[in-house]
């Protein structure tokens, strides 16, 4: 799976799940702010990545994911071989 | 000192319509809300009949992060309550400066619970359930969601009493107002309409198998009835003290004269006659009501063989030779279960306010029990100023309400 494919799919999923325009999802934008995530809905971000890519994001790693680029990087580096 | 308790607003989301006017017209026309569901048949249901309940779109009203907490029945209840508050002229500003409570009937959240736990088992991870799962899967989900969305700050309580939940909720709300503990309470009942909520119910062969004629399947009191049809949706009534309603200039629609209740203390699914009869008698006694003043009875009758006959016996026992008109609106809606006590209050109110009794559709031949009471088969123009509404549930829980026109 290419980086472009990950970006395209993640943006489409998050746009639908969190009801934001895809155009508003910029690579360097803050994930929590853009998607209006609070402590509860952050769980839905973890769940959707897990269900789509079979990647479990531990809390410690989640804290390091600030921007969408961080998220794409995380998925890209943790994809099952 | 006991206070007079009144209804000042109503709202409903039902297979007969999603506004009071639509529901009134459906009742009058004797329209059935029952359909055959291919989805249920393919999934393995013995009887694939169900009520056709539309799904509301809450996007224009509630942000995504709050909708996450709402299972199907909470969505129905939101729409019904939104309409009821508007009907009662209770706006957000008023609620912000006065204590308004909520007592709502609900007794299951099967689909939401199942979906969350399926994800947990699939991924072997609790986070896979998602953020809304815990709030969606609790029995009090309707009450908690509505209390937060409408900023209610009075009592917040769920009545779980099987198919009498909605009626008990209204009875409890009225009791709190009557005793002066609350001035205004949002009361109602909600019922999920998805197939998972009633799969086990279908499994015990309680449903009508008349799949070739959906509109004729629910036939309470009829000799040839063969089981109930599951329904769903939500209904809300605004219950408040008469003084409170007058003080704020609210429309006063009717008085909740009394509430009666009982438990059979008997079989878990087979009702008896004595329990329902005591509920009726207690309600009449609590309201000091003369039998002759009751102009209409909205029966619980669900279209099951034993249940309908036992209720007919109970009504005949209490009302003796009186020929008070009786119908079961479940002939049109199917059995709305946790919602039924509240929705049937709304149906009866619409009849009382519009001068008619909706016929008990499909009542073609009485049996030996229903022949003892006056079941009205077709809609008729009728003026009445007081009605009685029965709701009975599994475990033998019974609830009766008497409401008077104002």
Would you write up a description of this structure?
The complex is a heterodimer of chains A (81) and B (406). Chain A has 81 residues and is mostly helical. Chain A has 5 helices and no strands. By secondary structure, chain B is α/β, with parallel strands linked by helices. In chain B, the strands form 3 sheets. Chain B has an 11-stranded mixed β-sheet with strand order 5-4-6-7-1-8-15-14-9-10-12, sandwiched between helices. In chain B, helix 14 links the parallel strand 9 and strand 10. The chains are: A mainly alpha (81), B alpha/beta (406). The A-B interface holds A 18-19, 36, 38, 40-44, 46-47, 50-51, 56 and B 59, 63-65, 68, 119, 123, 125, 127-132.
Mean pLDDT across all amino acids of chain B: 97
What is the total number of structural domains of chain A? 1
* Residue runs with pLDDT of under 50 for 5 or more positions of chain A: none
Portion of residues in helices of chain B?
25-40%
Query: At the fourth CATH level, what is the homologous superfamily of chain A?
Result: ACP-like
Q: How is the biggest beta sheet of chain B arranged?
A: 11 strands, mixed
In whole angstroms, the N-to-C terminal distance of chain A is 10 Å
Global structural class of chain A: mainly alpha
Broad shape of chain B: globular
The oligomeric state is: heterodimer
The whole-angstrom Rg of chain B is 20 Å
Structural class designation of chain B: alpha/beta
The CATH topology label of chain A is: Non-ribosomal Peptide Synthetase Peptidyl Carrier Protein, Chain A
For the biggest β-sheet of chain B, the strand order reads 5-4-6-7-1-8-15-14-9-10-12
Q: Give the termini distance of chain B in whole angstroms.
A: 22 Å
Key words describing this protein structure:
heterodimer, A: 81 residues, mainly alpha, Non-ribosomal Peptide Synthetase Peptidyl Carrier Protein, Chain A, 0% strand, globular, B: 406 residues, alpha/beta, two-stranded antiparallel sheet, 15 strands, 20% strand
């Amino acid at each position: 799976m290419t980086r472009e494919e990950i970006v395209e799919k993640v943006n489409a999923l998050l746009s639908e799940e969190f009801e934001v325009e895809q155009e508003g999802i910029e690579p360097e934008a803050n994930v929590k702010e853009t998607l209006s995530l609070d402590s509860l809905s952050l769980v839905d971000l973890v769940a959707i990545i897990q269900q789509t890519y079979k990647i479990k994001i531990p809390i410690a790693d989640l804290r390091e994911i600030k921007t969408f680029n961080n998220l794409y990087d995380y998925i890209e580096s943790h994809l099952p071989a | 000192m006991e206070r007079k308790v009144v209804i000042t607003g109503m709202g409903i989301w039902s297979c007969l319509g999603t506004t009071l006017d639509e529901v009134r017209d459906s009742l009058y026309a004797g329209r059935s809300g029952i359909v055959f569901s291919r989805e249920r048949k393919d999934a393995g249901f013995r009887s694939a009949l169900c009520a056709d309940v539309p799904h509301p779109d809450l996007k224009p009203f509630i942000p995504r992060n709050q909708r996450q907490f709402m299972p199907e029945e909470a969505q129905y209840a939101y729409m019904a309550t939104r309409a009821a508050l508007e009907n009662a002229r209770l706006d957000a500003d008023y609620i912000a400066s006065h204590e308004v409570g909520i007592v709502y009937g609900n007794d299951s959240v099967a689909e939401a619970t199942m979906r969350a736990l399926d994800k947990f088992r699939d991924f072997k991870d609790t986070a896979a359930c998602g953020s809304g799962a815990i709030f969606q899967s609790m029995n009090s989900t309707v009450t908690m969601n509505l209390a937060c969305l409408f900023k209610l700050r009075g009592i917040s309580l769920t009545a779980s009493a099987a198919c009498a939940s909605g009626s008990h909720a209204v009875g409890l709300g009225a009791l709190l107002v009557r005793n002066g503990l609350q001035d205004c309470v949002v009361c109602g009942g909600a019922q999920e309409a998805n197939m998972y909520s009633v799969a086990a119910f279908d499994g015990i062969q309680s449903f009508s198998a008349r799949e070739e004629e959906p509109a004729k399947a629910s036939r309470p009191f009829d000799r040839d009835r063969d089981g109930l049809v599951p329904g769903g949706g939500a209904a809300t009534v605004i219950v408040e003290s008469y003084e409170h309603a007058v003080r704020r200039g609210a429309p006063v629609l009717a008085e909740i004269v009394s509430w009666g209740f009982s438990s059979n203390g008997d079989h878990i699914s087979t009702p008896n006659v004595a329990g329902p009869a005591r509920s009726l008698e207690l309600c009449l006694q609590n309201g000091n009501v003369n039998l002759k003043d009751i102009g209409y009875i909205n029966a619980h009758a669900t279209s099951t063989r034993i249940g309908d006959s036992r209720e007919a016996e109970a009504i005949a026992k209490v009302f003796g030779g009186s020929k008070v008109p009786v119908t079961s609106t479940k002939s049109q809606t199917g059995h709305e279960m946790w919602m039924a006590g509240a929705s049937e209050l709304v149906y009866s109110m619409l009849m009382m306010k519009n001068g008619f009794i909706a016929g008990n559709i499909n009542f073609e031949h009485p049996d030996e029990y229903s022949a003892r009471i006056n079941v009205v088969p077709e809609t008729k123009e009728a003026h009445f100023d007081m009605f009685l509404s029965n709701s009975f549930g599994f475990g033998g829980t019974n609830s009766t309400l008497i409401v008077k026109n104002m």
